[in-house]
Amino acid sequence: SSSTRRSIRRRASRAPKTCRSKAVAEAEVVQVAGEAATEAAAEAQARDDLKEPSAIGMARKVLASSSQTAGTKI
């Protein structure tokens, strides 16, 4: 009976770690995507100020797609 208690404790201690790592991974994906989107928008704006609205649209698309993929992983 003591061995079964140990295995239950081990499983219980493992569970929160996996959940936490998933949440951290999702946060990192969203953060990286946000940085990439802002960089892309800044580059496009630097190239041609007239194309600013399209750059913002691209940034929004990148953010939307990245948040969707992060959501499906969890």
Please characterize this protein's 3D structure.
- With 74 residues, the protein is mostly helical.
- It has one domain (23-74).
- Helices cover 92% and strands 0% of the residues.
- Helix 1 packs antiparallel against helix 2 (52-73).
- The longest helix has 46 residues, at 2-47.
- The radius of gyration is 21 Å and the shape is rod-shaped.
Strand content: under 5%
Name the average pLDDT.
69
Uncertain runs: none
Percent helix, as a range, is over 70%
Give the structure's gist in a few sentences.
With 74 residues, the chain is mainly alpha-helical. The chain has 2 helices and no strands.
Which key features would you list for this structure?
single chain, about 70 residues, mainly alpha, 2 helices, rod-shaped
Write the SSE topology.
Layout (H helix, E strand, L loop, with lengths): L1 H46 L4 H22 L1
Helix pairs in contact: 1-2
